[in-house]
From TrEMBL:
Residues 250-539 form the PEP-utilising enzyme C-terminal domain. It catalyses: L-histidyl-[protein] + phosphoenolpyruvate = N(pros)-phospho-L-histidyl-[protein] + pyruvate. It comes from Irregularibacter muris. The keyword Coiled coil applies. The lineage of its organism: Bacteria, Bacillati, Bacillota, Clostridia, Eubacteriales. Belongs to the PEP-utilizing enzyme family. Phosphoenolpyruvate binds at R295, R331, N453, D454, R464. Gene3D superfamilies: Phosphoenolpyruvate-binding domains, Phosphohistidine domain, PtsI, HPr-binding domain. It is found in: Cytoplasm. The gene is ptsP. Mg(2+) binds at E430, D454. This is Phosphoenolpyruvate-protein phosphotransferase.
Length: 576
């Protein structure tokens, strides 16, 4: 079976199949006189859920660390969310639904909203709501949750899906790997598996119906393959591959603290993408030399009102102090499109991704934008902060945004509040118009960072979440490579640098081409950092330039990919 390789590594062992338990909730209406009793039942279930989640979080802190345990802080926030809980109570009172049915009804509405979003991170938040909602329903109905904390023997866990609670309660010493019917690379199961360094293959369709307890399984988190009751020959083959991978990981471990320098001495920066201050630890542990993308919108989400300047200042300061002088590129608020803020009342639009979003909102809501800029400037004295504007389509937007930065600076000066007066300002290049006119915009900024996810989407005119056309989404499309080259060349002609913080930067197949095109900074998820360093340290810049030039001469992504794989083999550079 083939799924999505969500956490690298190879595991061989017996299967333990967790059957998906559907909860049957009766929709029987209650009497008006019973409203109070149903609300009380709901509140008791919420209180019990809170205690359970606090206990799980405490266990997760001990076994996974503070950062990963934050998942349960998010769950507790869902539990405390007055909108969620308030709507359940309203449903009981207005529609006379019983507490369990009302919870399921509102939970499904929230899940549906999150699942309809295009942003992968937000889409996965549906799992948080479902996990918490299901817990409340179980507590209302008195259903005991399954306990995975005591396993008798080592096993590969196969399930329809694994909630963060399931994962946190498992006996980690016994779990060899995860395999699930559903899920993707940004799901909690994937994140937890990578954090625990447990191999995982997700999105296997119906593996739980094809495997029974005790079957022998080979699970390859590198290729996404799962083999059921394999032959002796296959077992031997994968035992060998497993040893090779373990040796490869050991080699990567030794590279963590080394610079990303080519064999002929050209050095670039390999940095990490983060969403919260808690993510800094992962970047540093994997040898990240900076933060190439700090997504500040997460400060604005999962709450009822705008974060204050002080709240933002504390978060930015924590990241800058954590990075101990290494550069931190802080992207200003990137909201709109599929990212809504309930307290901002963003209008419904025909084409939200082409509409009022990101810098366009900030330039109109200047007070909100200036509050964020003041917070960033105040925090800038605690490290090396850089400001990046998202969704720039032309030079006028850059000038308007910089004007507001200058206003914020003058205010702080008048208040005798210190800040970095030479703070660098750059833009995220994610719209083709910005990439094509990079030579003009380069006169106005200190750096570029290419956001390849949106750049691919807008350039190829493809919605990567649309199954009918997602095959067209291709970072190695010749048009994308030409735009990337144009941006890098324009920045170098003005003496400024270009980074890349889209997914393209973290895919090892692209590293040699991007290096050869002259990219100065690669920013990605923390776990990928050592692998990209390894590739860069095993080639000369001249060789990479030859590969990039050859890629630019080819006609299709397939030809480019085949060429790069051939070069990697000749250079004896292994990607696993």
């Amino acid at each position: 079976m083939i799924g999505i390789g969500a956490s690298p590594g190879i595991a061989i062992g017996k299967a333990l199949v967790l059957k998906h338990q559907e909860i049957e909730v009766s929709s029987k209406k209650i009497q008006s006189a019973d409203q109070g009793a149903e609300v009380e039942k709901l509140e008791k279930a919420i209180d019990k859920s809170r205690k359970q989640l606090e206990a799980i979080k405490e266990k997760a802190v001990k076994e996974l660390g503070e950062s990963e345990a934050e998942i349960f802080s998010a769950h507790l926030m869902v539990l405390e969310d007055p909108e969620f809980v308030g709507q359940v109570k309203l449903d009981i009172e207005n529609n006379l639904d019983n507490a369990a049915f009302a919870t399921q009804k509102i939970m499904n509405q929230f899940v549906s909203i999150f699942e309809s979003m295009d942003d992968e991170y937000l889409k996965e938040r549906a799992a948080d709501v479902k996990d918490v909602g299901t817990r409340i329903i179980k507590n209302i109905l008195g259903i005991q949750s399954g306990d995975l904390s005591s396993m008798d023997e080592d096993a590969i866990i196969l399930a329809y899906d694994l909630t963060p609670s399931d994962t946190a309660q498992m006996d980690k010493d016994r779990v060899l790997a995860f395999g699930t019917d559903i899920g993707g690379r940004t799901s909690h199961t994937a994140i937890m598996a990578r954090s625990l360094e447990i191999p995982a293959v997700l999105g296997l369709g119906d593996i739980t119906s094809q495997v029974k307890d005790g079957d022998i399984i080979i699970l390859d988190g590198l290729s996404g393959e799962v083999l059921i009751n394999p032959s002796e020959e296959l077992l031997e083959k994968y035992e060998h591959k497993k040893r090779e991978y373990q040796s490869y990981r050991k080699e990567l471990e030794e590279l963590k603290e080394l610079p990303a320098k080519t064999l002929d001495g050209h050095e670039v920066e390999v940095a990490g993408n983060i969403g919260t201050p808690q993510d800094v630890e992962g970047v540093l542990n994997n040898g990240g030399q900076g933060i190439g993308l700090y997504r500040t919108e997460f400060l604005y989400m999962d709450r009822e009102n705008m974060p204050t300047e002080e709240e933002q200042f504390v978060a930015y300061k924590e990241v800058l102090q954590g990075m101990e002088g290494k550069p931190v590129i802080i992207r200003t608020l990137d909201i709109g499109g599929d990212k809504k803020l309930p307290y901002l009342n963003l209008p419904e639009e025909m084409n939200p991704f082409l509409g009022w979003r990101a810098i366009r909102i900030c330039l109109e809501l200047k007070d909100m934008f200036k509050t964020q800029l003041r917070a960033i400037l105040r925090a800038s004295t605690y490290g090396q902060a850089l400001i990046m504007f998202p969704m720039i389509s032309g030079v006028q937007e850059v000038r308007e945004a910089k004007t507001i930065v200058e206003e914020a600076k003058r205010e702080l000066e008048a208040e005798n509040i210190p800040f970095d007066k030479d703070i660098k300002i750059g833009i995220m290049v994610e719209i083709p118009s910005a990439a094509v006119s990079a030579d003009i915009i380069a006169r106005e900024v200190d750096f570029f960072s290419i956001g390849t996810n949106d750049l691919c989407q807008y350039t190829i005119a493809v919605d990567r979440m649309n199954e009918k056309v997602s095959y067209l989404y291709e970072p190695l499309h010749p048009a994308i490579l030409r735009l990337v080259k144009n941006v890098i060349d324009a920045s170098h002609q003005r003496g400024i640098f270009t980074g890349m913080c889209g997914e393209m930067a973290g895919d090892p197949i692209n590293t040699l081409i991007l290096l050869g095109l002259g990219l100065d900074e690669f920013s990605m998820s923390a776990l990928t950092i050592p692998q990209i360093k390894k590739i860069i340290r095993n080639i000369t810049l001249e060789e990479a330039k030859e590969i990039a030039n050859e890629a630019l001469s080819l006609a299709t992504p397939e030809e480019i990919r085949d060429m790069v794989n051939e070069k990697l083999n000749k250079l004896n550079i292994t990607i696993m």
